[in-house]
Amino acid sequence: MKATASDGARTAAPGDGPDPLEARLKAYEGRPSAVAGRGKDPVNAPMIRHWCEAMGDTNPAYEGPDAIAPPAMLQAWTMGGLSGHTGRTEAYDELLALLDEAGCTSVVATDCEQEYLRPLRPGDEVTFDTVIETVSGRKTTKLGTGYFITTRTDVRVAGDLAGTHRFRVLKYAPARRKAPGKARARRPRPVVNRDNAGFWAGVAEHRLLIQRCTACGTLRHPWLPGCNACGCLDWDTVEASGEGSVYSYVVMHHPPFPAFEPPYAVGLIELAEGVRMVSNVVGVPYGKVRIGLPVRVEFLRYEDDEGALDLPVFRVVEGEG
Fold it and tell me: In terms of DSSP bridges, do strands 307-316 and 276-282 run parallel, antiparallel, or are they unpaired?
């Protein structure tokens, strides 16, 4: 998964001056941050069930006597919770403290990469080792100037490598915010990647496209590289009717963002085709939004100094609310 924190990141230019901190940070590459760590719980059916319910994943491979754990749960079995885990070293904390002293006091997770070598099954006892794999040179991003830190965790069962989890954060000094001007605040742009580009291409044409597995016919949203139901990687699209209802919602009051005017309602919309997506609910005051309220998609265009942006929102059907 990719986050926008690294979008537009650039290496500090020579004109920015030498970076005496970089050599000290690079000395942490290769140092372990956890040695012979042990998962707090064996792989188990209740955690698998909770994960699948939260993700809406109904793959039958994750149920029954021959169940396996969803591969994306790899990190879950190594997490230490509030009390931490055994095997932790001081190297990672020292690295973060060094960056704090240099003014890089903020941190944001940017992305993770996972490799799966064998399935995990209920009863498996997980052990892991974590190493500080890389520390980047100084980078300038929209958030501020700082350093990307990548850790690699090797997850094992009975000594055999089961998977690898790489996790990357940006530790940075927040950029100074410009004084607000008269120009309209920039609305955040969606993160478009190779997996969801087709959806946003449809939005640009004012079409709401849903992925459909060509093997089993299961519809899915958000867009994914493979089918949750059968694992097939082949898919086509279905154009949604745009009709739906409010499955759940929240009213945003805080924190305020420059491009938004709270309070406003954000809904989890269940489309007539059966999939759900998140977007704004418009057409009635936020206090009148209710679960079950019928809605219909419409495409709103936002203009700012970076150009036009089309986004799907859901308007309450006239006469309702």
Answer: parallel
Query: Domain 17-174, what architecture?
Result: Roll (3.10)
* Long-range contacts of the stretch 250-257 (C-beta < 8 A, 24+): 251/286, 251/287, 251/289, 257/185, 257/188
Instruction: Give the DSSP letter of residue 2.
Output: B
Helix segments in 151-241, DSSP class H: 197-204
Residue (of 190, 212, 297) closest to 246 by Cα position: 297
Helix boundaries (H) for 72-126: 91-101
Q: HSE, CB side, 13 Å, CA atoms: give it for residue 271.
A: 22
Q: Hey, what are 216's tokens?
A: 């089993």
Q: What percent of the chain has pLDDT over 90?
A: 76
CB 238 within 8 A of CB 212: yes
Q: Full-prediction pTM beyond 0.70?
A: no
Sheet of 235-239: strand order equals: 219-220, 209-213, 235-239
pLDDT of the residue at 156: 97
* Domains in the chain: boundaries: 17-174, 197-316
